[in-house]
């Protein structure tokens, strides 16, 4: 049976980790497959949203133990090449032109929690648990750190990384690692409905919101940024999608984004 499953629900691409016997821990093979599947979903014009989820009781235990055994015998150069496999997957989730939604149940540890942080939106079962446990192994969460720091901030990331403290879903929500906490028996229906609602929105505008945030995040609110954001909205207003939306709004119609 494949360790990675891919299916479609209308315009939603659903990618499922399926190494249940390994608590959905990932190795280089699974990551290569995940990268390929993500690339295909992002390139598919019929896809409007991507859900990343997992079968079984747990979202992901992070890196597979057997894979880590192999890493221990790699040279530093080989380890760089190996680490880039996970780094590319994380960055693909983060920069995807389609919104990425993590659906989390059970444990999301180490790199598994990193996958959650790299997604745009995270929806977790109330019973979910998160832990950045790398320091227990004498390692550090280097590859996932940009996405975790971006999600929770530097000081919280220091606490989570340095202590390897486990947090529950409600705490993760307070820290912005998770956005919605749902009863586990409602998790799938809620997540799919959430994704399907996003597919009814203007697709280019949704995608451009991601690039807009990257454009303004951390920048001083000065004259240059003021002029840049004015130029961005002006360009959007005269775009085909912007004109379609404005026309529908002014005529009290529902816009057709197909």
From TrEMBL:
Isomerase as UniProt keyword: yes
One GO MF term attached to the UniProt entry: isomerase activity
A Pfam family this chain is assigned to: ECH_1
UniProt KW Lipid metabolism keyword: no
Matches recorded under SUPFAM superfamilies: ClpP/crotonase
Alphabetical keyword list: Isomerase
Gene Ontology biological process terms from the UniProt entry: isoprenoid catabolic process
Protein family: Belongs to the enoyl-CoA hydratase/isomerase family.
Database matches in PANTHER family: ENOYL-COA HYDRATASE, POLYKETIDE BIOSYNTHESIS ENOYL-COA HYDRATASE PKSH-RELATED
Protein name as it appears in the record: Enoyl CoA hydratase/isomerase (Crotonase)
Organism from which the protein derives: Legionella rubrilucens
Taxonomy of the source species: Bacteria, Pseudomonadati, Pseudomonadota, Gammaproteobacteria, Legionellales
């Amino acid at each position: 049976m494949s360790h990675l499953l891919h299916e479609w629900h209308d315009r939603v691409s659903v990618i499922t980790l399926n190494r249940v016997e390994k608590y959905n821990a990932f190795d280089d093979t699974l990551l290569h497959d995940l990268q390929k599947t993500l690339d295909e979903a992002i390139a598919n014009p019929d896809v409007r949203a991507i859900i990343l989820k997992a079968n079984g009781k747990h979202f992901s235990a992070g890196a597979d133990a057997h894979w880590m055994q192999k890493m221990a015998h790699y040279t530093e150069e080989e380890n760089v090449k190996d680490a880039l496999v996970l780094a590319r997957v994380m960055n693909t989730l983060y920069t995807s032109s389609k919104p990425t939604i993590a659906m989390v149940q059970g444990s999301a540890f180490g790199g598994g929690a990193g996958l959650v942080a790299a997604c745009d939106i995270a929806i977790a079962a109330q019973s979910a648990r998160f832990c950045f446990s790398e320091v227990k192994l004498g390692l550090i969460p280097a590859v996932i750190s940009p996405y975790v720091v971006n999600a929770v901030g530097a000081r919280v990331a220091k606490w989570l990384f340095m202590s390897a403290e486990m947090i529950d879903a409600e705490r993760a929500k307070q820290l912005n690692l998770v956005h919605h906490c749902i009863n586990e028996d409602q998790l799938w229906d809620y997540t799919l409905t959430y994704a399907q609602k996003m597919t009814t929105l203007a697709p280019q505008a949704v995608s451009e919101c991601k690039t807009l945030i990257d454009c303004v995040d951390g920048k001083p609110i000065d004259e240059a940024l003021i002029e840049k954001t004015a130029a961005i909205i002006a360009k959007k207003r005269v775009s085909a999608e912007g004109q379609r939306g404005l026309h529908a709004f002014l005529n009290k119609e529902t816009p057709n984004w197909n």
